[in-house]
Write a structure and sequence with these properties.
Helix content is 76%, strand content 0%. The protein is mainly alpha-helical.
Length: 437
């Protein structure tokens, strides 16, 4: 009966988002309150549980997500992203153009939120396709595969960062494992899959052609790469060093502090402010205005994360999590596959990768100690499932269709199939790592 009540709560969330077209934050709040009543929480405790869940999750993530938005905004507006893309095009040449686009999406996609990366880089892909007389879909899909994977798999993007916090995982290790899975996933769902798309013709609207800056206006390639990838370098370096230090080492607390995701993102933003801003004669006022706009861009993401925290706390305080654990422990299915499957189903129903991932986390986080699974791999498994088969209820589906000016049929054959490949290959990569680690 308890499992049924949880399913009713999740179904209500789906209905409110898909059918009622309610904002996901409001949908999470309503579903959390209804779930509290259904699961027998005293009425005077429900509001407290909601507030505790929202505050507890946001407390770990506000700095990471906000700083990530600021860094991504500056990388985009300074021209660093264009510099990286142009450099890789020249380095790889026409014959390996799809590999260059994948690498561009991977590097630029780490600091940029998905929608920003899409709007920024897809027009550049159109310019490249026109220059080399290639199909825009053939050039664009490898880029979008990389952007999608970084969005679903890698911190400091909101969903994986939130999952790390909920599962008490290690962000540096999650990032390291995520990169190991990301590279083959992007290669197969990007350049390899794109070989079958050469004959799909797209006529992108002129509105979406890139406004390419002059070379003299762009930052240097070394500056662009170092600044964009600094969070990755710092997280991985401090994690590896900490793992190599003995427990009694007096340096462990120092590297524990330096490796904290919030500290890493703060250092990265301060460095970017100098390297891509002050050093290039950009006024402090303009930089701060850009950062203010960046925080506005991700305000709703923060609220959705908070709403997911509320639902998780209701499940925890009602005691339903333990009952779910007891019900699942005898299932003849690997926990990583189970988490992926739950996420994939919610993703197909709701459309939002972030909502799908965080909803699954709300169900699983309180019982992770009973699952005998690496929490870092669980983050990646859910991340892979959250990208499963994007279709009509996903904003990304329509952005791709309209930017590339494709039919519904061709959009499903290219975009939806690419997202499905990312989800399945990602899961296979997680299971291989689970076997090896």
């Amino acid at each position: 009966m308890t499992i049924l009540l949880v399913l009713i709560s999740i179904a209500l969330l789906v209905i409110l988002i898909v059918w009622a077209k309610l904002n996901p934050f409001l949908a999470f709040l309503i579903s959390s309150i209804v779930a509290g009543f259904l699961l027998g929480l005293p009425a005077d405790q429900i509001a407290g549980s909601v507030q505790k869940g929202m505050g507890g999750l946001l407390g770990d993530l506000v700095v990471v997500i906000v700083m990530g938005a600021m860094l991504g905004k500056l990388v985009a507006e300074s021209g660093a992203a264009q510099r990286i893309a142009g450099f890789l095009m020249k380095l790889f040449g026409k014959n390996r153009i799809t590999w260059a686009m994948s690498l561009t999406g991977l590097i630029v996609g780490i600091p940029l939120f998905y929608n920003v990366g899409f709007v920024l880089l897809v027009p550049l892909a159109f310019t490249v396709a026109y220059q080399y007389r290639l199909s825009a879909v053939y050039v664009g899909i490898p880029l979008l595969a990389a952007l999608s994977v970084t969005h679903g798999f890698l911190p400091p993007h909101p969903s994986p960062a939130a999952l790390v916090a909920q599962f008490d995982a290690n962000m540096g290790l999650t990032l390291l494992y995520g990169l190991l899975i990301t590279i083959p996933t992007v290669a197969l769902a990007g350049p390899v899959f794109a070989k079958s798309l050469k004959n799909i013709q797209a006529k992108p609207l002129e509105t979406f052609q890139a406004e390419v800056r002059e070379e003299s206006e762009l930052p240097g390639i070394a500056n662009s790469l170092i600044t964009a990838l600094l969070p990755v370098f710092l997280l991985i370096a401090t994690t590896v060093i900490s793992l190599g230090l003995p427990e009694s080492s007096p340096l462990r607390p120092l590297f524990g502090f330096l490796g904290d995701p919030g500290v890493v993102m703060l250092v990265s933003v301060l460095y970017a402010t100098y390297s891509l801003g002050i050093r290039r004669k950009t006024s402090m006022k303009k930089l701060m205005d850009s950062y203010t706009q960046a925080t506005k861009d991700i305000a709703m993401i923060l609220l959705i994360v908070a709403g997911a925290g509320a639902l998780k706390q209701i499940f925890t305080d009602s005691g339903v999590s333990q009952e779910i654990a007891d019900g699942l422990k005898d299932w003849p299915i690997h926990p990583l596959i189970l988490a992926w499957t739950i996420t994939a189903i919610i993703r197909v129903c709701v459309g939002s990768a972030t909502v799908a991932g965080l909803t699954t986390a709300g169900i699983i986080a309180p019982i992770i100690h009973t699952m005998n699974v690496d929490p870092n791999l669980l983050v990646l498994s859910i991340g892979a499932g959250s990208l499963m088969f994007s279709h009509f209820n996903d904003a990304g589906f329509w952005m791709y269709k309209e930017f590339f000016n494709l039919s519904i049929k061709d959009t499903i054959k290219t975009w939806s199939l690419m997202e499905t490949l990312v989800a399945i290959i990602g899961l296979i990569g997680v299971l291989i790592l689970d076997f090896l680690i």
